[in-house]
Amino acid sequence: MRSNSQVFLRLEGRANSSQKNLLIAAGFRLILIALVMLTMPIQMRFTAIVLLTAATYWIEAWLMTRSLRSQNVVVGLRSKLHVRRLSRAARRLAPMNFAIVGREQAFLMVMSLAGSTVVLGEISAMTRFAVAFTVVNSFVLNLILPRLARMNASRAIRAIPIYSAVYLALAVMSVVCVSLFSPILLWVLGDSYKGLNLELTVVMGGSAVLSFCSGLGMMGQSRRWLSGSWFLVASSAIWVVSGPLLFDLRTTMGGALYLATQCLPALMAEVLRFAAGAREVRRSTRMEHERS
After folding, report:
1. Burial (CB count <10 Å: 0-12, 13-18, 19+), residue 138
2. What element of type H or E holds 101?
3. Which of 214-218, 219-223, 267-271 is predicted with the least confidence, judged by mean pLDDT?
4. What is the pTM of this model?
5. Can you tell me the distance from the alpha carbon of 174 to that of 121, in angstroms, rounded to the nearest whole number?
6. Scanning 115, 133, 195, 207, which has the fewest C-beta atoms within 10 Å of its C-beta?
């Protein structure tokens, strides 16, 4: 519901409302996590943070839904139709959303059990620079999604690869900039991070692909291509289990590779979604030609 509501608000020219809701939820999440870190025993922090993350995602969905209902008052008789469509889409996307949230928490748990707390701290610190992709994500999608959703199906099939190429190019440029300025970025983190240039590049590369997958998924949702949820659940579970077997999680590079490869299940799921959507468009076009 959260991501679908974002798409709808963008289509109605209310992207600022969507961003405001996300900022409120993010600030609320930051305050709660800070309180947990300051007041709770270390043994209880992991469980509390997992629960708080889930709760703040629910808050984001609630804020988006409230904005959406306000918009539905404006669109009048179409409101019930929008609510039914969004509810149906939310049910279809529920497994995928569960996989996305669970994958992040599974990484923390596996690293805590099979890796090193020092490595986990280093990886977590390096991921802070991935905020650059959030900016790219917001800028590109706010420009692209409304236009893409209003295109006819055949034109959208041709446009999505072009938009994706532009999006990916921006992400790659961000990774290149991080790689070039990695000594400065690592200096900001502290002396203990000196020499982790390659690890930082790996983390940022994985974050870039993951951000790209998120953008591609939002493009698919704007066209109501909602398949791939259960595939992402299965492939994410394989990633969680295979990571400790493939990488030495006691090293920073092993942890970086494990984090970066979480983009692979997402990439495969989004390619699958695009292929299914393109196939449906071709089939509909063929049926229209046959009728005519």
Report:
1. middle
2. helix 79-114
3. 219-223
4. 0.71
5. 23
6. 195
